Amino acid sequence: MARFRVGVQLHPQHTTWESYRNAVRYAEEIGCDTIWNWDHFFPLYGPPDGPHFEGWTLLTAMAVITQRAEVGCLVTCNSYRNPALLSNMAKTVDHISGGRLILGLGAGWFERDYTTFGYEFGTAADRLRALRNALPIIKERWAVDQPPPLRRIPILIGGGGEKVTLRITAEHADIWHGFGPIENFKRKNAILDQWCAQIGRDPATIERSVSPRAGEPIEPYLEAGATHIIIGMGEPWDFAPVEALLKLRG
């Protein structure tokens, strides 16, 4: 079986900091390669006004309480922060983590976040245009701001839009994150390869991560080119699927 990385996305909703902290520490203890949260302001399921924590302040704490695993938001909503500010935040967390940050980015989609916090929701095209415009700014700031990041911070782009998102991924990302079911992943993965060919980039330079649907077998994703499997969960934390995946990896 091909070597692959194992990640876990811990949903920062309907929980306490103490419980979340323990889950992060356990994820690293059992051998997860990456540990993620998400970038929203309200729960995505369950009681809509239940407890929820902000992604980047939480990410900073995750960087402090871990030592080995890479950390990131899966994914940061590009629209919520000025790109120059976000670049500075990212390089700061990169230093705090000792060079373990992955900058996960997406165009944004959860309308409640936008309307409640006073952001312009606009259209999907507006948000994708903003993402495309932000990426060169982020990279430029990393090149000139002091101190620079400890490493070339990997950029993950999440999403499967075939005409725009996957092209932006081919242009800028080190990691692409897709979703199940398997046929969906196969299609998007192939289209990303096509975009790479069109712009002259080696598709092998983009790591392929995926969050399969609950209960789906992992082997078809590995056969389809996935090299990074990320399992999402909320409280109560059930690490059994992650532990099984780590065992499968060996």
3D structure, described in words:
- The protein is 43% helix and 16% strand.
- With 250 residues, the chain is of the alpha/beta class.
- Helix 1 links the parallel strand 1 and strand 2.
- Helix 2 packs parallel to helix 3 (83-97) and helix 3 packs across helix 5 (124-144).
- It is globular.
- It starts with a strand and ends with a helix.
Rounded to the nearest angstrom, the radius of gyration is 17 Å
Number of strands: 9
Strand content: 15-25%
- Any low-confidence stretches, pLDDT <50, length ≥5? none
Order of helices and strands: EHEHEEHEHHEHEHEHEH
Please list the strands of the largest sheet in the order they lie side by side. 3-2-1-9-8-7-6-5-4
How many alpha or pi helices?
A: 9
Give the proportion of residues in helices: 40-55%
| Class inferred from helices and paired strands | alpha/beta
- First-residue to last-residue Cα separation: 10 Å
Largest sheet: 9 strands, parallel
**What is the residue-averaged pLDDT?**
97
How would you sum up the global shape?
A: globular
